[in-house]
Prior knowledge:
This protein is α/β, with parallel strands linked by helices. The protein contains ten helices and ten strands.
Amino acid sequence: MRQSPPSTAPWPAVRRHPTRLSSDLLIEIDHVTFGYDLSRMILNDVSMAFRRGKVTAILGGSGCGKTTLLRLIGGVHPANQGRVVFDGELVDTRDKQQLYRLRRRLGMLFQFGALFTDLTVFENVAFPLREHSDLPEAMIRDIVLMKLNAVGLRGAAPLRISEVSGGMARRIALARAISLDPELIMYDEPFAGLDPISMGVTANLIRKLNDTTGATSLMVSHDVQECFAICDYAYLMAAGGRVVAHGKPDELNRSEIPEVRQFIRGEPDGPVRFHYPAPPLAEDLGVSA
């Protein structure tokens, strides 16, 4: 872990350790290390804290462990070391009853929507309500239409998924994610593959829904400017599953830490390398130097 800039620097120091535990924390990631096997660690001693009612971005390039982090929060995988705490409760992947109970408190916007292509827009949003509640159909209908209206797609309710655009599909998936009014909403690459208008609409929806419902939102993304426009706080991860720095958007924007500066500004040269570690090309091709 790099040292923080000296206090005499003209930019604010970027905080590197989560604030001390308190009741306003909904999720705590406490020194978590994780790998799918022992040969390669995906997350390396990661600590984060997510405050209630806030929009927090988890930024970083592909393969740095951002989506894996969401899987650990959802109890899909257990951490090899460290703790994942949800509202003061240690997440235990062996306790199925606990997992079902905690998962009912969260909504998930998957990277590619994960909509049911054989169902209509209406039926996709209604699905969680029918699975996890005993509400009458009349009430389910009203809730679905209100959620679709919130994302601007009430008129698309009878359409098939094959009849909607990519941006519309992302908004339908968002309506489904908030159908049960979750306390925690997790967004996995919510801006991937969207045109600039759809990207702006989605960003505004995330912020508006968070403030209107009082939910806590976690965004995993590599779209820096869209995230900085709506998030309250951000973490920056780097290769090897490390947390490089974290802070408010303006703090990260002014940071001169090399890895932070390179990612935020999109600089081609810096500590983040383009090539995955490999032997010299001549050696792999069997060509003598």
